[in-house]
Amino acid sequence: MNTTRTLCFVIAALSSHGALVCRLGQVRRSWRENAYRTLVITLLLQCLTLTMGAVAMVNERFLGVGNLATLVMHVSAVAFCVSAQIILLRWANTAEEAVRRTGYWLITGIALNALLIALFLIADGIGRPASDFSSGSGQPLVLIYLLVFIVSQAVPCVTIFRQCGPYTRMAEKAELRPALRLLSVAAVILFFYCLARTVGIVTAACGIDLGGWKLAANVFSAVGIATLSLSLTISSWGTPAGQLLGWAHSYGSYQALYPLWRDLYGSSPDMVLEPPGVSVADLDYRLHRRVIEIRDGWPDLRPCIDRTASGPAGANRGAGDDSRQAFAEAAQIRRALHAKHTCIISDDNKDPDGFEDRDTDNFMAEVDWFAKVASACRKLGNTR
Predict the structure, then answer these.
(1) Total-model pTM
(2) pLDDT for the residue 184
(3) Are 108 and 94 in contact (CB under 8 A)?
(4) Among candidate residues 140, 127, 139, 150, the one with its CA nearest the CA of residue 68
């Protein structure tokens, strides 16, 4: 159980500090922006919360004061939630509206932290065992302190989730929409953390042992913090990640087209503009060339196509319409290549149509169709 709890904490800490480092890399060009400074402050508070959590786990006394690390962790967590709410306001509202609502949240955060500090001192938090604040306590004042802290975390989760939907539709900047969606997901997960934490505290106060279910709060916390960190940094890594995914998709399509391209190239070597190679430099160009070469190799094969012949029996049993068409096309290519290589071409076999009359204006749809035919060609065997 301790291993799982430590692993969850490490995940949350690494994601938080990673997000901070990611955003600090933009400090030179973005520091003058209020939204950027607010974001950095939010991430600093998030890292402070987790750092104090680590200190509290290792030592009950911080700077010689008992449970001070726990108090600082809770106070910084409240400030962190308020700061995250302010970020959302700055993302989705005009400057004047954001400033007005920011004032309300700052006052609320200060009041909550003052209440937490007062409850901590009244409940003699300095002299109590650390377990009272981690697993719950039967002492009424400690229980009230912990429940106030949880409410201070749950309310921003609810407000952020409620606001993210309308703000996502209103956002003028396209890069904000994925951040807002991730932020709403993080709010839901962290709200479940608050519920799990409440159940754990109340059951501990009642003397009920939840066993392994006590780890639910740790799991929700780790996943929620990691998702929140992603939402606060997605504008930094979202575009490069999208480009990388696009490159990977293009590379997969390029390789998937090879069986079909290979068969047509073997039949019509003149269709190739450049000698075939293994380099993937300038991948977009190479993918377009591969599609064009498949198209160019098709006219030489059309006189050998027999559209009246059916595909191989059982080769595509249970497949969808596109898969059945792809297998039928691959089988016709196989027969046409055989006919061309053996010089056995019937006058009735001349095909007046294009390559299944696919929409050549939609490049990616054409690539996907060629990939299905290529996959069918590979399954049917070497057609050369």
Answers:
(1) 0.67
(2) 86
(3) no
(4) 127
| Angle at the Cα of 215 from the Cα atoms of 214 and 219, rounded to 5 degrees | 140
Beta bridge mates, 101: none
The answer to whether 264 and 297 have CB atoms below 8 angstroms apart is: yes
Strand partners, 61: 66
Dump pLDDT digits (tens) for 137-179: 667 888 888 888 899 889 888 888 887 777 666 655 666 677 7
Close Cβ partners of 67 (under 8 Å, ≥ 6 residues apart): 56, 60, 61, 120, 125, 126, 128, 130, 133
The answer to whether the beta carbons of residues 23 and 33 sit under 8 Å apart is no
Predicted pLDDT at 273: 72
Considering just the CA atoms, what is the radius of gyration of the chain in Å?
Answer: 31
Average pLDDT, the chain: 77
Q: Measuring CA to CA, which residue among 122, 41, 107 is closest to residue 76?
A: 41
- Specify the DSSP class assigned to residue 173: S
Q: Which residue has the tokens 């520091």?
A: 31
189 neighbors 161 (Cβ within 8 angstroms): no
Cβ atoms within 10 Å of 7's Cβ, excluding its own = 13
**DSSP string for 36-63:** HHHHHHHHHHHHHHHHHHHHHHH-SEET
Token readout for 127 is 């002299």
Contact 66, 120 (CB under 8 A): no
Q: How confident is the model at residue 384 (pLDDT cuts 50, 70, 90)?
A: very low
How far from 130 is each of 70, 136, 273, CA to CA, in Å?
Answer: 8, 10, 74
Which tokens belong to 333? Answer: 């290519």
Amino acid 70: pLDDT: 87
Cα-Cα-Cα-Cα dihedral sign, residues 56, 59, 60, 61: negative
Query: Half-sphere exposure of 58 toward its Cβ, with a 13 Å CA cutoff?
Result: 8
115: confidence class by pLDDT, cuts 50, 70, 90 = very high
